[in-house]
Amino acid sequence: MANKIHPDPASALSGLLFGGMTIMSGGFGLSGNPESLIPEIRRAGVKDLTVISNNAGADGFGLWMLLESRQIRKMISSYVGENKLFEAQYLAGELELELTPQGTLAERIRAGGAGIPAFYTKTGVGTLVAQGKPTEFFDGEEYVRETWLRADLSIIKAWRADSAGNLMFRKTARNFNPNMATAGRVTVAEVEEIVPAGTFDPDCIHTPGIYVDRIVLSTINEKRIEKRTTRPREVA
Fold first, then answer.
1. What is the predicted pLDDT for the residue at 1?
2. The whole model's pTM is what?
3. In Å, what is the CA distance from 12 to each residue of 146, 216, 217?
4. Which of 36, 66, 103, 170 is most open to solvent, judged by the fewest CB atoms within 10 Å of its CB?
5. Which H or E run includes 75?
6. pLDDT tens per residue, range 11-42
7. What percent of the chain has pLDDT over 90?
8. Residue whose C-alpha is closest to residue 158's, from 66, 1, 36, 4
9. Which ranges form a coiled coil (predicted)?
10. Nearest-CA neighbor of 141 among 119, 128, 122?
């Protein structure tokens, strides 16, 4: 079996990056972001990237770094409301955006990994989302056709991996990561812990190692809180 473990994020991405490529990047808000791999893409300097991700990070964190360095040409995303840099670049015509409903985005990625080139959904019918897309009626209801999403590279964040590349995710950090692992031509996973093959109970594996080409220990595990909400402590 080929050794999937790489000593650092730079070597995990070696030979995979090129200008104009499409990258899937896991995460939802600040949870489950491949926060060690993104800085290496920035250092590599590849440009004209199409990035598929639920959002584009937050100020100073995650994919924001690639926006700040002007390496992203197009985002395929669901939520962009908290990223001022994203907003500014889009409104200035510097960034192309394909805005996709969140459930549709997840299903397009899943379809890409499953080899399903298109599917129908009611979400977006009669709105801007459906403009230019074929529609069809099923049981008297109109549905819009959506197409799969696939990528040259998927970068994902997991909690634990074994040396065969089997992955476990921790709670909400799972989010888009498992589906993206299946939809990339090459998948690189950064993880918090690597254990020997055979350690995991097979029933506890979230992503089988067949979908994972390279694994590397995370060098950044900040676990930031995007919005801290507090209230005064009640008097006892």
1. 62
2. 0.93
3. 33, 7, 10
4. 103
5. strand 72-77
6. 999 999 999 999 999 999 889 999 999 999 99
7. 86
8. 36
9. none
10. 122
